[in-house]
Amino acid sequence: MANTHQKLAHAISEYLQWLEGRVYRNTKIQERYEQVLTAFLAFVREKDIAWDLLFTIDTLKDFRTHTTLPHPSRALRGLCGYLYSEGKIPQPLRLPNYQIDLPDIYEAYLHYHEQSTQIPYRQIKQIRRVLTSLHQYLEEANISLSRLTIEQVDSFLATFCEGFAPATCKTYRSYLRGFLTYLYQERSILSRDLAPLVRGNRLYAQAKPPKFLRPQEVQRLFAGLKLSSPTDIRTYAMVHLAYSLGLRPSEISKISLDDIAFGKGQLTLPDTKGTNPLVLPLPEHTIKAISAYLVGARPDSKSRRLFVSFQAPYRPICAETVGRSISRSMKQAGLCSSAYWLRHTYAQNLLESGGSIFEIKDMLGHDKIESTKNYLHIHIGLIRTVLFDETL
User: Fold this and answer.
1) Read out DSSP for 63-105?
2) What is the rounded CA–CA span in Å between residue 313 and residue 306?
3) What is the secondary structure of 265-330 as a DSSP string?
4) What is the pLDDT of residues 196-229, one digit of tens each?
5) Percentages helix, strand, coil for the chain, rounded to the nearest 5?
6) Any idea what DSSP says for residue 191?
7) Residue-wise over 307-318: b if at least 16 C-beta within 10 A, else e?
8) 90 cis-preceded (ω within 30 degrees of 0)
9) What is the pLDDT of residues 251-283, one digit of tens each?
10) Cβ of 293: how many Cβ atoms within 10 Å?
11) Are 134 and 176 in contact (CB under 8 A)?
């Protein structure tokens, strides 16, 4: 079984390197995964387990009994999912606490969603719960997934969401929308995208004003940014893009070198959350921040993405890495805030400067005016000027 041991060791090395360029860079999670997988490698050698028996429930149960490390199944499930996506094993690891074994299309979506978004394991379990109930509903009603209609989706949701709080129902609808979009865009199983038709009652009473930075906090943030390492320079450019253009972490992560027109001072975003292409003006200080990153920090990568990892093979970084980098810089400046606060600050600045809600809608790349209204509940500067004779 020496060949199995060598093959597994190589697979673990590749998986840990893949993690290095994604969410878990410089975190304790990667260290914990490495500990578990190293222990699993020693366990496989000791038990002399064949390759085709490695990623099974029985092997997982034996390893859980053998090791004292906490939550070993998470690392093994991640490794198994990676190998499945690379075509090196026939199916992902299905843990026994899942409700039922779902058909391949559901399992493929769960794997696709987990790998593309790197969401927590508990959220995958919640999504599986919705998909399990949907599958059972379709089976009992003898409905083919490829012939699914919005009326049938509404009927399922009416039954499934009965008794849940409105906020919980909203979350479950969002899970279902993701699956329907996958069926239409990625697998062409549905002839029409039903996701936009899945709607519920608006929760007006739960709307909350978005949080943003005051001018003195913005000054503190930029004063605290460092340029002493490639990572610092990359974060410096990300913060400028988030603050000066109001970009989401997902949009920053997708910026291509081809999207930037330095001569015109423009940034083109062909793929935004609202699917509306955007052409935004690049302020001079943001151009300088991007240029500093390109000249002094960006590795020589084959990828055309602007932001890449600092570990070979220099893959594009994901939205979570962008969010973590920006949030970390804000925390270092003593600000208890997140990356999205900069987007909210951008919207607030537009409002303060006299921009109309329709202009702000276009600048934020929203599909619907209702989305923009969430950013514009209150005009802080006007309130403080009128009530307290004070400027922000």
Assistant:
1) HHHH--SS-HHHHHHHHHHHHHHTTSSSS----TTSSS---HH
2) 15
3) TEEEESS-TTS--EEEE--HHHHHHHHHHHHHT----S--BSSB-SSTT-PBPPHHHHHHHHHHHH
4) 988 876 655 445 556 778 888 889 999 999 999 9
5) 60, 5, 35
6) S
7) bbbbeeebbbbb
8) no
9) 899 899 999 999 999 998 876 555 567 788 899
10) 22
11) yes
- Helix 150-160 to helix 166-181 angle (10° resolution) is 150
Q: How far is CA 264 from CA 255, 259, 282, 307, 326, in A?
A: 17, 12, 9, 21, 27
Q: Is the pTM of this model over 0.70?
A: no
The answer to whether 144 and 114 are in contact (CB under 8 A) is no
CA angle 238, 25, 285 (to 5 degrees): 10
Q: What is the CA radius of gyration of the chain?
A: 24
Find out whether 239 and 372 touch, Cβ atoms under 8 Å. Answer: no
151-189 in b/e form (b: 16+ CB < 10 A) is ebbeebbeebbeeeeeeebbbbbebbbbbbbbbbeeeee
Beta strands in the chain (DSSP E): 260-261, 266-269, 278-281
Question: Is the distance from CB of 55 to CB of 93 less than 8 angstroms?
Answer: yes
Residues 272 and 366 sit within 8 Å (Cβ to Cβ):
no
CA-nearest of 210, 211, 205 to 373 is 210
Tokens representing 320 are 């979570």
Sign, CA dihedral 126-132-135-136, equals negative
Q: What phi and psi values does residue 269 have, to the nearest 5 degrees?
A: -115, 95
**Whole-number Å distance between alpha carbons of 3 and 286:** 52
Sign of torsion, CA 279 282 286 288? positive
